[in-house]
Structures are given as C-alpha cells and as structure tokens.
Write a structure and sequence with these properties.
Elements lengths: L2 H23 L3 H11 L1 H28 L6 E5 L6 E5 L8 E2 L6 E5 L1 E3 L10 E3 L11 E2 L6 E2 L18
Helix pairs in contact: 2-3
The protein binds zinc ion (ZN).
Zinc ion (ZN) binds next to loops.
Length: 167
Amino acid sequence: MSKLPSLMDDKAPQSGANSNTKDANSKPPVLERLRHAVATPTGRAVFGIVILAALAFGGYRIFGAVNSGGADWPRIRVMDPETRDLRWQDVRPGATMPYVNPRTGERSMYVVEYCFANECGPAGGTPAVLNNYLDKEGPTICTKCGATVTAHNPRPAEYASVQPADW
Ligand SMILES: [Zn+2]
C-alpha cells in the first residue's frame, strides 16, 4: 500500500526527468518542424522556393561581382571642361582618357586638378582640366582665381589635406 505511492513518486520525478531530457534533446524543434513541413507538398514547395531564392541570390552575388568588377577599381575625379560636369571615374582596364560624359555621351571628361590658391582655398578648391590634356597651348589658368594650375597642382600648406568641396 505504501509502495504504490512511492512507486508513483519514483516515476513522477523520472518522467519529469525524461520530459526534461526530452526537452533538452528536442531543443531544435525547428528542425523537427522543418522535417514535418518538408514532408507536406506545400512545405516542399516553400522549401523549394527558399532554395531557389538562395541560389538566385548567390548567382546574383557572383554575377554582380564579375559584372561590376567589385568596387575595387581606383576612382579618379574627372570633369568635362566645356560643361564643367564632374563625376567619379572607375579606372578599369581599357578605360582611357577622355572618359565618356554620361550626360552628353561625348568622350569629353578629363582628370581634374584642384586649385586651392587665393579665394579657391576657402571655397573648397576649384576643379580644372590641364591644357596639356586638351592639346591647348600655354599654361592652365584657374577659371575662378586666375592662378596657374599644373599637374599635381601644389596647394598652400593650410589646404594640404583638405578634401575638395565637390567630392
Ligand atoms: Zn583658383
């Protein structure tokens, strides 16, 4: 008589322990549920879509990387001296100056030098294209302040590390 309750008492904690260990063992019920889900036609369809999406995304990533060449090409600041359109140009193999101005479709964009002389310094620099590139005679003159602009145009010391305002 007194054994029965004790047996039950013994069982109770055991089953409790079992259910505890079961909980611990079946900690990924998600996997269990996934297996169930995949067993159904709808689940399989959803699973298939997920796989397809993953593959498509992977393909896009790979294709995108090949297509864009990544963002690893050095970029240079270029300007159209006629329109004064400015943009960043990826320097990838085969890209040669003059670069295409996407606004006009003309090959009319050239590497920019910045003038930081006179009022151009406080104004954040004035972009200029060297006459050299345009097959023009004579020195290149800043359109804003009239200073001479040369290749690797030197700047006043206080503007040595200043980023041009139009970047
Ligand atoms: Zn200037």
